[in-house]
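Blinded run. Sample ID left blank on purpose so nobody reads anything into the name before looking at the predicted structure. Input follows.
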Amino acid sequence: MSMFQIFNISGSAVSAQSQRLNVVASNLANVDTVAGPDGSVYKARQVVFQTHLFGSEQSAGVRVAEVQEDNTPGRRVHDPKHPQADAQGYVTYANVSSIEEMVNMISASRSYQNNVEVMNTAKNLLQKTLQLGQ
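Blinded prediction complete.
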C-alpha cells in the first residue's frame, strides 16, 4: 500500500465522522421537541457506515451508507395542560436519548481526532523521509 493511501483512508473516516457529528447535533437539538399539530414528532436518526474500497490497491476506507430514522415510539408524558396534549392528556416527545447521543458525540469526536492524528503522523513521516537525502 502506498503511503499516500493513508490520507485517503483517514480522510474518508474524518468525512464519515463529521457527518455522524452533524446527525448527533440534529438529534440533540430536538431532544425535547413535542409532536406538532399533525401528530408527527421528530425521530432520532442514526448513521450507518459502509466499507469503501479504493481502486486496485485493495485498501478500504469508510463512507456513510445512509442515515436511518429510529422508529421506536417517543416518550409520552401525561400533561393535560400542555398545548400539544392529545385527547387523553398525553404529550408525545421525540424518541431521542440525550445520554445515547452524548456517547455518540464523544465516540465520533474521538474517532475524528484519531484519524486527524494518523494523517499528521503520516505527513511527518513523509517529511522526515524527504529530509534523509539532505
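Unblinding after everyone has recorded impressions. The chain has a mean pLDDT of 90.
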